[in-house]
Amino acid sequence: MIYLKLAWRNLWRNRRRTFITVGSLFFAVLLAIVMFALLEGVYGNMIRNMAGFTTGYLQVHGNGYWEEKDLDLAIPVDEALIDKLDHTKGITGVMPRIESFALASTGEVSSPVMLMGIDPVREDAVNNLQTRTRTGKLFAANDQTAAIGEGLATKLSLSVGDTLLLLGQGYHAASAYGKYPIAAIIDMGSPELSKSLVYLPLNEMQRYLSMEGMVTSIALMSAPGMDLQKELKAVQASIDTTSYHVMDWTEMMPELLQTMQGDQAGNRIMIYILYMVIGFGLFSTVLMMLTERQHEFGIMVSIGTGKKQLSRMVFLEILLLSAIGIILGTAASLPILHYLDAHPIRLTGEIADVYASYGFEPVMPVLITPNVFLSQIKTVGLIALLVSLYPIIKLLRFSVMKALRS
Amino acid sequence: MARTVIDAHELSKTYTEGPVPVEAVKDVHLHIEAGEFIALVGPSGSGKTTLLNMIGGLDEPTKGKVVIDGTDITGMKENKLIDFRLRNIGFVFQAYNLIPVLTAEENIEFIMLLQGTDKDERKQRVQQLLEEVGLQGKGSSRPSELSGGQQQRVAVARALASKPKFVLADEPTANLDSTTAANLLDIMEKLNKEEGMTFVFSTHDPRVIQRARRVVTLVDGEIEKDEMVNEPMVD
Fold first, then answer.
1. DSSP assignment, residue B3?
2. What gap in Å lies between CA A398 and CA A296, rounded to an integer?
3. Among the four A270, B148, B152, B235, which has the fewest Cβ within 10 Å?
4. CA of A300: how far to CAs of A3, B58, B161, B163, in Å?
5. Are B51 and B222 in contact (CB under 8 A)?
6. B99 touching A, CB under 8 A?
7. pTM of the model
8. Between residues 13 and 52 of chain B, which touch chain A (CB distance below 8 Å)?
């Protein structure tokens, strides 16, 4: 307790220096947290957009389906399985789907399209299809209509109410043919999906492909920032893995992961530079503190203070100094992050076009999870510990006589 | 016969840090008995502070040994030596050297905290020592709020807090005016007479020398004279 008291009071011997050091820590922690939350938010949003529309964060499908993409490897689906997945810990969205390809025609123009049979309610809950509907109204589960992307509507000159002809191959090579009025034209986010995606109600898709009671995959979503591997294990534990296979998005979209990792590396360098500034700032304070108090340390050891006790006191000083900076920086980041969460930065101009071309929404949302704070707190804490090693080593080795003469 | 508390035997110290080795203390034999009030005197550079530092276990002799109350501290491991100092030797330095962030009370108590003395005993002894050095009511003052003389009195109380076998005082009156110095010496003399506390001074201050009962004069690192100027205090 006496060392804590000494450490605390020593901090305020040179108030100006303490304020400057705490200030530098404060701004560095604040900046690091906001930067990290933005980076994580942007990447999280990117993954969420991609995964929501395509694979899901996790996907349950038949063994071998991912490699073959063959309708014959579809899996039977019933309420019990969906319910089980709905109640799996960490899973926030369950979207049974059938994915296939077809030739779409208006009678005059035709185009290859990607077909997706969806449960409109479940899909809307994840991908906000109602909000993204530009014209018309999204179909209901038992309708026999289609929804298409804006790009495809332009390509085939289709409007709501026009009829789309679909021709493809169904389950076990059955021929598949359907004629569907366009119920809605949707902004798919990604230009690629916009030009090629056709949604059908899942029931209608099963009928069209002659595969009632079956789906090709069940896409699963979870809350942003959750531990995907933990959820993957939870899903594996809740289903029969001899019939079903579970994959996460990093396995299904490795190219997205690689792009992100490359991009993240550059951004992280910025944060590392910030950490270096923090480290050197703290180190210079510690260095000055040690030099100024050499004689005092000498006196303390002369009268019987052990060098370990002295090191403990200085270590506590550095820890307190860092803790004040970390706590204040973290506290100040909270309102900023809450503001950015409610009002995410919207990108405009060329950057927005670049985002759109990759199929991402041109916004920079923030991700507010405990990890955003903890990772920065841990890193700055680690820097403080590393910085404190120097005075500890110095004090354990210092010469009392030299200190007394200083 | 009084107990020997300090026995310096063939003590030498040579500094080799500069281009030419400097012999600061040469073959010094010094026996100090419990209850003495002794001054090591001599001109600047005569080796008195070096000798005091070696007796206090702060500096390592190049040759010879220091035995404190039967324990040879020469070559003792550093951690052990720090603990030995804590339990056996009280220090009073020239420039007060109190811990600036602690109050007078806390400065005195600090030594007892290091020793592991229990709280009640600490509090009681702090009050008793403050009274002995005439600083009742000043316990909660920080060193910066005390005069030089008051700070030096706190330093004396701190030196006595651990109940040491002796107190080493290096030029304790150097920064004090004559009245303050006289007050401080009165306190130390009283502690010597009434409690039998051994005081060893390194000084060239005539005010201290006048009060000392034994004066050891050092010249060029050697004892030139060792004389009893008054009857020594015996337990």
1. P
2. 12
3. B235
4. 12, 12, 15, 17
5. no
6. yes
7. 0.75
8. none
Q: Which of B82, B99, B113 sits opposite A306 (nearest CB)?
A: B82
Q: How many A-B residue pairs are in contact by the CB < 8 A criterion?
A: 55
Q: Is A397 on the interface with B (CB under 8 A)?
A: no
Q: Nearest 5°: phi and psi at A164?
A: -115, 130
The domain ranges of chain A are 2-49+257-405, 64-241
pLDDT in single tens digits along all 406 residues of chain A: 788 999 999 989 888 989 998 998 898 889 889 988 988 888 888 888 888 888 899 999 998 898 988 999 999 988 888 999 999 988 999 999 999 999 999 988 899 999 999 999 999 998 888 988 999 999 999 999 999 999 999 999 999 999 999 999 999 888 899 999 999 999 887 778 889 999 999 999 999 999 999 999 999 998 876 788 888 898 988 888 888 899 999 999 888 888 888 887 888 788 888 888 888 888 988 888 888 888 899 999 999 999 999 999 999 999 999 999 999 999 999 999 999 999 988 888 888 877 766 666 778 888 888 888 998 888 888 898 898 898 899 888 888 888 887 7
For A336, the enclosing helix (H) or strand (E) is helix A307-342
The domain segmentation of chain B, as residue ranges, is 4-97+165-228
> DSSP H helical segments within chain B, as ranges?
48-55, 78-88, 104-115, 119-132, 148-161, 178-195, 206-211
Residues 6+ apart with CB under 8 A from A325: A21, A22, A23, A24, A25, A26, A28, A29, A380
Pairing mode of beta strands A214-215, A133-136? unpaired
Residue B56 near chain A (CB below 8 Å):
yes
B114 vs A299: CB contact, 8 Å cut-off? Answer: no
From B92, which residue of chain A is nearest by alpha-carbon distance?
A: A303
d(CA B207, CA A145): 112
Determine contact: A299 vs chain B, CB below 8 A: yes
Distance CA A290, CA B164 (A): 30
- Say if A294 is an interface residue toward chain B (CB within 8 Å): no
Architecture of the domain spanning B4-97+165-228:
3-Layer(aba) Sandwich (3.40)
Among the partner residues B78, B79, B111, nearest to A303 by beta-carbon distance: B111
To the nearest whole Å, the CA of A6 is away from the closest chain B CA by 7
The complex's ipTM works out to 0.88
Residues near A250 by beta carbon (within 8 Å), at least 6 away in sequence: A228, A257
* A112 Cβ neighbours under 8 A, 6+ residues apart: A101, A102, A103, A104, A196
